[in-house]
Records
---
Amino acid sequence: MRKYVIMGVQGSGKGTQAGMLAADLDLVHIAVGDIFRWNVQHHTKLGAQVRRIMADGLLVGDDLAEGIVRDRLAQHDWNYGFIIDGFPRNERQAEFFLESYDIDGVIHLDLPDSEVRRRVLARRLCSGCGMDYNLLASSPHVPGQCDVCGAPLVRREDDTEEALAVRLREYHEKTDPVLAIFARKEYVVTVDARPSRDEIQADIRQRLRLPPCQPAVGAGAR
Ligand SMILES: [Zn+2]
């Protein structure tokens, strides 16, 4: 049984790394943000609650996130363990979580703010079909134009320098104390989130003393 928390700022590749670990080790990947999105899309009671909060321009509260995580973990379908992303979100939840679940490790994907800024400000969105682009990694064939539908690419409304500065400040204000609590118990492995996804994954596994990643299906000799 392996129980991990993964933490990292937006653009740090947290979801990708958690997904890779979960797929290979049979862990349940609990992404709190995805659970909120799923509920909104499927018009559940919780989804309606989340939608109301967001319509008022507010962030989904810590209590709601805590309830989601508690319900999800109470399903006990995580025979081999879990990796959780988007929680705990404050010091109280971190203490509670440590006492309740006997965590094996906290993976902290470390990305300097300057690199977050570079990555996030390179994001583009097709104004026609909604396809995502990143001018650093997946730029379109014709600059400024969608490969699929040809519509102009635009920046997301909240991907401005100013909005990002606010998000980064909020992230550090919330996350740094949580990391400090975990670090006191010596659970945290801090991994450089700048290399390629495979290099980051290898680094995480080495630091957690996990076996190296299995080659992808179809790769290598049979
Ligand atoms: Zn398009």
---
Amino acid sequence: MTACCGGRVSFETGSLCPKCLRKVSATREMYGEDAYLVKRCPEHGEFRTIIWRGAPPFQGWERKPNVVRTSESQTKVERGCPFDCGICPTHRKNACTAVLEITARCNLHCPVCFAESGSGAVPEPSLAEIAQWYRRVLQAYGPDIIIQLSGGEPTVRDDLPAIIEMGRSLGFPFIQVNTNGLRIALEEGYAALLRQAGAASVFFQFDGMDDEIYRRLRGRAFYAEKRLAIDRCVEHGIGVVLVPTIVPGVNFHEIGAIIKLALELSPGVRGVHFQPVGYFGRCPDVPDNKSRLTLPDMMRAIEEQTGGMMHAGDFTPPGWENTLCSFHGTFLPKPGGGLQALTGHGGGCCGSAEGGDAHAVSFTARQWSAPPVAKVSDCCCCESSGSTPGIESLDGFLERVRTNMLSVSCMAFQDVWNLDLERTRDCCIHVVAPDGRMIPFCLYNLTSAEGERLYRGKTSANNDYIGQ
Ligand SMILES: [Zn+2]
């Protein structure tokens, strides 16, 4: 519902109190070019969090969610969103990505960690339990979904190849490993092992080009190992997606350099997926709005830091999750240098993840997998070809797109401060909880300011799947 109060446009949604996790009403309010999520707890007062800063304009970006949910519900509406996840009948989207957390262990001790890994106290799921999760995903969404094996750090499990093989044998075509890359770098032959098992892609933690960044964010300086791990994945035909967590004051200035490196290492590196930092875990002080990065901050930073090679206008809202959750762009290096945007103002005919769930999943899976083996002699845009110079056939162009396209995207996760239940109901990245419930990623990782969790580590009687 849109209303106008005191000259500012507002939109009503719901949220939680960051202190007591009580459900509260919330509004998106415009102040000039900026949008804030404003909410008030009867006990803990008002919270005002920036959700959009500057151009491109918020109003032009926002659009109504389109209902495409086809999957059955597993939980009933009892306490209302966001307390009935599993998913419940009020959820609007199928999952496009199912996250399976196969371990809580990690070989790093990052100050920034969604999963709060490393405690070692959480028992590891058995292969039989993981098989149950895979079947649960199949039952809910079918095989055409991105399976992301996550943790913790999944490579600390010696049976990771067996877990990948199991997923492939159950019919999932696209399995991605979410990794910091350390084991891939340190263990000769490990990348080949993952590829042989059927891993298509790595969702590769990559925060910048400077050891100091890794020391601050990950507790260990290992840039050289990062580069080695990328090379090994590329060598063995595993598509690499660089995933930087961007923290103001730490690596915001590295955004352009990361994209330039990705272009240099393209087509082996398939994309960059930025994740502005969120505030999870114990966080007694209200995070300063200045320390938050919104989607437009990231689009403008990409334009500035790439020297205009990519423009803010090249990016488009997502095709399937809520438009306030992400943006994406696809770019094709031109034979003579420079980039052609296939999305946004400059494109839109191809390279788009729009057009519904199935199309979006297959597009992403194809883009994040290793490139098809280049047939240089057949490529009409290549200098070695015998075709007419300067004229490219459609087939040649499409071949070049398939092989060389780089995707640049950004996902703004929600924490307890900026949680917007209208966004959450459109979430399509679902974590499979140990008891088989499918929980939207942001809610699964959400904690109160005191560190109390909403879902992680908790079971619920509101779950039809248990016992099946
Ligand atoms: Zn409260």
